[in-house]
Amino acid sequence: MKPLIVAATIPEIAILIATFNLHEKEFIHSPEFDILITGAGMTATAFALGRHLSPKYNLVLNLGIAGSFDKSLPLGTVVNITTDEFAELGAEDKDLFISIDELGFGKSKYTAYNNLLNDHITQLKKVDGITVNRVSGSEESIKAITNRLNPKTESMEGAAVLYCCEQTSIPCLQIRSISNYVEPRNKANWNIGLAIKNLNDWAIGFLTNT
Ligand SMILES: O=C(O)c1cccc(C(=O)CC[C@H]2O[C@@H](n3cnc4c(=O)[nH]cnc43)[C@H](O)[C@@H]2O)c1
Fold first, then answer.
1. Which residues surround ligand 1 with Cβ inside 6 Å?
2. In the CATH scheme, what is the code of domain 2-208?
3. Max Cα separation, the chain?
4. Using one digit for the tens of pLDDT, what is the confidence trace for 61-78?
5. ipTM of model
6. What is this structure's pTM?
7. Which residue of 62, 179, 182 sits with most ligand 1 atoms within 8 Å of its CB, as the best mutation to test the pocket?
8. How many CB atoms lie within 10 A of CB 87?
């Protein structure tokens, strides 16, 4: 039994891959853990996990960067996203949004179930996230999603990972580092380098228990 580390893109975990002297590719075997690079977005993530998830894994560790709705969270903060929601799954009724739950044919919100209590995890702030196909980037859409779901973070994969883990009853942990605030798009304000550095430092500490 070993963990499966899941990330959308190689750059997000390149420091970790180099630290363990592994070679960058889509699926990496190592004695202590395996690594799956899914590609960005829910569809790519669900497809890749559908191919690779199996009972040989005792934990899925989803690593990545994320946007934060909360501007009091400094860029580079590493957070534990314990619940995640498919924010766009449902129907529009003029100005109203009807969730898949309210429509009666699905579930939009998932929890990252695990029984891990080690210091690396407990030191992290626990937050509720949403998962989207389109990065929120207008005052109007940000206000609407904040009023409806009041999320702390936004990514493009999280809820898909939690969904796959619930379907297969495999414990799950979603750890992301804040690269940007969710605001009208301005990539100059993002700090992807800091977020990736802090994310990888956390992950290396967790995997080596140092
Ligand atoms: O431009 C780069 O150097 C670079 C390096 C590594 C990764 C990226 C990405 O753009 C990763 C995309 C990934 O990031 C997540 N993300 C980050 N911020 C947000 C957001 O505000 N809303 C939604 N998703 C966000 C997302 O999970 C993407 O898969 C670039």
1. 8-9, 11-12, 40, 64-67, 132, 135, 154-157, 179-180, 182, 192
2. 3.40.50.1580
3. 53
4. 999 999 999 999 999 999
5. 0.94
6. 0.97
7. 179
8. 23
